[in-house]
Recover the amino acids of this structure.
């Protein structure tokens, strides 16, 4: 009901699922979503290690969205950086949140953004 109400108000609706949450919890609401956030760390604090085991979950979710003909973004958040962004993007995420990787880049924020964007774009090109 909440998702329907959000959309009725003209807003975009989204949900987040934690690493331990089964993907099938979205079965009944997927058609109501504009965004599905798959957490790639357990929420709590920045700087945690990326949980690569979430990539198959992202890939399955992308397949469901595509097969149903839906227009829904998939976001990943947590541990996203130079060593992990390619896997997240290649698995189907199209909204990529990075925190520590941006602000800890010794060459600065602009370099970090460019590097991460380039890696994600390359990974999507190779996957598609």
């Amino acid at each position: 009901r909440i998702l329907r109400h959000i959309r009725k108000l003209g807003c975009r609706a989204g949900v987040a699922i934690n690493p331990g949450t089964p993907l099938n919890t979205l079965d009944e609401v997927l058609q109501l979503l504009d965004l599905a956030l798959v957490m790639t760390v357990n929420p709590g604090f920045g700087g945690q290690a990326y949980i690569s085991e979430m990539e198959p979950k992202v890939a399955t979710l992308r397949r469901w969205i595509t097969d149903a003909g839906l227009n829904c973004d998939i976001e990943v958040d947590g541990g996203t950086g130079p060593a992990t962004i390619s896997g997240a993007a290649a698995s189907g995420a199209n909204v990529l949140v990075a925190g520590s990787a941006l602000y800890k880049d010794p060459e600065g924020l602009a370099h970090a953004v460019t590097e991460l964007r380039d890696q994600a774009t390359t990974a999507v090109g190779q996957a598609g």
Q: What stands out?
A: The chain has a mean pLDDT of 94. The helical segments are 2-8, 55-67, 85-91, 100-103, 109-127. DSSP finds five helices and four strands in the chain. Strands lie at 14-17, 35-39, 73-77, 95-97.
